[in-house]
Amino acid sequence: MRDLDLLIDAARTAGDIAKRYFNAAPEVWEKSGGQGPVTEADLHVNRQLEADLQAARPDYGWLSEETEDGKARQKTDRQFIVDPIDGTRAFIEGSRDWAHSLAVVENGRPVAAVVYLPIRDALYAAALGEGATLNGVTLTAQSDKPMSDATLLTTKPTVDPKHWRAGVPPFKRTFRSSLAFRLALVAEGRFDGMLTFRPTWEWDVAAGALIVDEAGGKATTKDGHAPQFNNDHPQINGMVAAGGIHDQIIAALA
User: Fold this and answer.
1) Which end of the chain offers a freer environment for a tag, N or C, measured as fewer CB atoms within 10 Å?
2) Is-contact 254 163, C-beta < 8 A?
3) How many Å from the N-terminal Cα to the C-terminal Cα in the chain?
4) Which residues are recorded as binding Mg(2+) (predicted)?
């Protein structure tokens, strides 16, 4: 079985588990250090994904938001990078906009990726050099357009003038709580781009970054560099993902 097919099967199993807890008052805990909530659904999905994926690829490393990082992954040639539920707050609130985010990384670069939204039955997938799809239909990111006509997925702090070279460009701003879903929507061409300037956990964006790239867009750190994954500290320097306006966004940043 190809890595991508393995991720697709695992994501669908994860969705079946998560739906049992959705809108069913799952137990919720607050993580230490202000890292946000985690539910029993996150933990159940994480256990299942780790068991299934590591059984199929025991030589791959493992990095997940809900598994303590022992750094053994850095001695492996390939790694799974997983967020069992990206958008846990949305999950708790009963929104449909949470996702399972699964990637395989080799030499710091994603080579297979799935972002799956079970309640929407939307499965975004990509393999390096093979394009990106939504439920089997090929995706194409938005082509060039002026920033003044663009709609970007991002949070309110992003429009603080301190982040911009010559004032905030006149783009429209909207939001989805899951970073993985934001990236997938850019790949789908429904939005022109997404921005996050905070240090960004690898498990939130590894899968979505490949899906954007394979849809003909570009996903980079906020300084315009290709993101490198499987770092000792698993964060990257923000993310800017877009179709044709990607370089315009990078040029406008302070």
Assistant:
1) C
2) yes
3) 45
4) 65, 83, 85-86, 204
Question: Domain locations in the chain?
Answer: 3-138, 147-252
CATH tag, 147-252: 3.40.190.80
pLDDT at 144: 80
In tens, the pLDDT along 134-165 reads: 999 999 998 788 888 999 999 999 999 999 99
> Is residue 85 marked as binding?
yes
Among residues 215, 221, 164, the alpha carbon closest in space to that of 190 is found at: 215
Does residue 9 have a known ligand-binding role?
no
What percentage of the chain carries pLDDT values higher than 90? 94
Mean pLDDT taken over the chain: 96
Q: 86: annotated binding-site residue?
A: yes
- Given a contact cutoff of 8 angstroms between Cβ atoms, the answer to whether 132 and 185 are in contact is no
Is 59 marked within a binding site?
no
Q: What is the CATH number of domain 3-138?
A: 3.30.540.10
Nearest to 248 by CA among 158, 175, 159, 149: 149
